[in-house]
Amino acid sequence: VVREHDPLGRDVELFRRHLYTSGNVGPTSKGSEGAELVDGLVIREGDFKLVKTRFSAFFSTHLHSVLQRAGINSLVVTGE
């Protein structure tokens, strides 16, 4: 699960919009350093990359349906 946003901030939460004003590329705009995976984390063939634009990987994403289709009923969530 990665956070990526439209460079103009059109899909950013209201409380983060100030980071995308005045023509600035926001810190998690698609293609920016802030949207990159951390060193050592690689998406391999067959892996699924889920892009989130909100505070939660479970809100307005397809995570639940992806897990169901794959027959996954347990999930471990980590992060910094």
From TrEMBL:
By its UniProt entry, which InterPro entries does this protein fall under?
Isochorismatase-like_dom, Isochorismatase-like_sf
Name of a matching Pfam family: Isochorismatase
Source organism of this protein record: Trifolium pratense (Red clover)
Residue limits of the Isochorismatase-like domain? Answer: 16-79
The alphabetical list of record keywords is: Hydrolase
Gene Ontology terms for molecular function: hydrolase activity
Q: Which Gene3D superfamilies match?
A: Isochorismatase-like
Recorded family membership:
Belongs to the isochorismatase family.
SUPFAM superfamilies the record matches:
Isochorismatase-like hydrolases (SSF52499)
Give the protein's recorded name. Answer: Peroxyureidoacrylate/ureidoacrylate amidohydrolase
